[in-house]
What we know:
By secondary structure, the chain is α/β, with parallel strands linked by helices. It has nine helices and ten strands. The strands form two sheets. An eight-stranded mixed sheet has the order 4-3-5-10-6-9-7-8, with helices on both faces. Strands 1-2 form a two-stranded antiparallel sheet. Helix 6 (about 180-185) links the parallel strand 7 and strand 8 (about 195-200).
Amino acid sequence: MTRAAEVLHVTHGAVSRQIRQLEEQLSVSLFRREGRGLLLTPEGEMLRASTSQAFDQLEQACVQLKRRASDAPILLSCSGSFLARWFIPRLDKLQTQCPGLKLHLTASEEVQWPLASGVDAALRFAEPPWPNDAQVIDLAPELMGPVMKPGLLGSEIAPSPDRVHSLPLLHTESRLQAWPLWFGAKGLATTGIRHDQVFEHLNYMLEAALVGLGVAIAPAYLVEEDLRAGRLVAPWGFIETPARLGLWISPGENRPVIGKLIEWLKAELVQNP
């Protein structure tokens, strides 16, 4: 009660009166005394859980409103791999093509909803259906395929997909289902897939592929520069997975700068599939 009074800048007695009035209105006891302190009753715990979520959403909405009223940059969240391998190499192009768009980038590996406090938008690969209260702009399909250092297959021009069985398979902990998904799409048996090397992060797996330690399974968007430069090859192409790349924004978000970001992302993803 004392801490609540300090936060609300009212007296201890004012908080106590409000609690009593709330208990009378709800016809339940929200607190019980234990020694010199107070503990929540089961009814109080139930109310605390629901109101905490509501207050979090209210705080997030207030943060968003303050950011809209200011000239603050858009805080965009995406995975560390997508940030390093796709977005950062294009920042100069974004600034040239959208000079009025101020953008701050932050790395997060979680598909988090509601968005973290202060985050305006998030780029995520995730499978539909989306949360009912989320506004998700569908940007592009996820394309996944094996990539390796040139020469790992010798001089073969058009190797059969089952040749992958003869190569060391590289995995990442966050997408252990990627290889079975690709094997199934190619009509190969999904049982007995070897786990020759499992990496904590996708970037580590791709670095291992770049030095010839094996064949990695990776999203096309994250290896397109390596493929273009000839550092990696994708002899069997890429398959479309159930996941989609989407821009997750709060419901009702309609700032023109967000619209510019969406237009640029769509154009860039189509241009660089």
